[in-house]
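Human:
Take a look at this sequence-structure pair and walk me through the tokens.
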Amino acid sequence: MSEVALEARDLQVRHGDSDGDFELKIAELSLAAGEVLAVIGPNGAGKSTLLRSLAGLERRCTGAIVCCADGPLTMVFQRPVVFAGSVAHNLHAALLGSQLSRAEVAVRTREALERFSLARFASRNAATLSVGETRRLALARAFALRPAVLLLDEPFEDLDGEGQESLSLDLLRAIAETGVAVAVVTHDLRRALLLADRIAILQRGQLVQCDARDEVLNHPVDPDVARLVGMSNLVSGVVQGATADRDAFVEIDGAHRIPIRGAPSDGVPVWLGIRPEHLKVEVGRGEGVAIGDGVVRHLVSDGVAATVTLEWAGLTLRTYLIAGRGLARTLRPGDSLTLSVRPEEVHVMRRSDGAPDDF
């Protein structure tokens, strides 16, 4: 197991704003050397407040923050700024006070510029850089310090798709080469999934789940987290047929039910979560247990994947097809499709009494 690079205990930040009082309260959070922790959550959940607290920049924060790693802790802000002068000067300025020799400053500057594809801009006035180049410069400055812990607040904001992809790959490479521990706040689930080893979910200032990436994706703790991580098919029902030695099912209505594995007891009200990629269209391949027919309402393609929206049991479900192939070429609104699921890919969440029947 990797050594702990940063540990926080009993963090609490309380302040008021135009919408009322806000409180961030985190009992425990750790970051291991060489890992990437993605922090996601809805607007106002406290993501940036958490990052500032970990950096020691939140004056109203109480609790213990211990940097256990041998090296500095560095933060790259959501709105990075540049210093007057050249791109190379910006890196030199970041290393002021480090007591490094001129030769070592030159080595670190060259290394950081090359790492983030900025070497050709070394003599350019930093104020003339594009948004994407400015974000690269901010990361290069941070890595020039050779941090043990790096905190990133929305590093991909304002970048187009190609810019996000390119910067993500360079950042992944830099993390792998240096072994730095990273906590990154992002509102973009795709970026989080590309970078993260673990995902932390914040809601209303509370850490509601912090697990390995795939655990959060496939076993969210509640419907709110499920929707946040892309488990958009959420269905309520009641467990029936639960036994110790076979799969049970959840009764949705008199005509529809969904098979599950590892069921609670009979009669327990539950939410079922099914990721769109786990809801299959039955085409005779035996990919799961049929759950009935759905009617196509919409089909939208981004050129890679086609998202199919269907009506099933009076509910809206989504599945994915490969764009431009097979059914994705021929489906039309109003078409009927038989849907199927694998019981082990249906996630069961207990539903409290009195919960609404839809989500």
Q: What stands out?
A: The first strand starts at residue 4 and ends at 17. The first helix runs from residue 47 to 54.
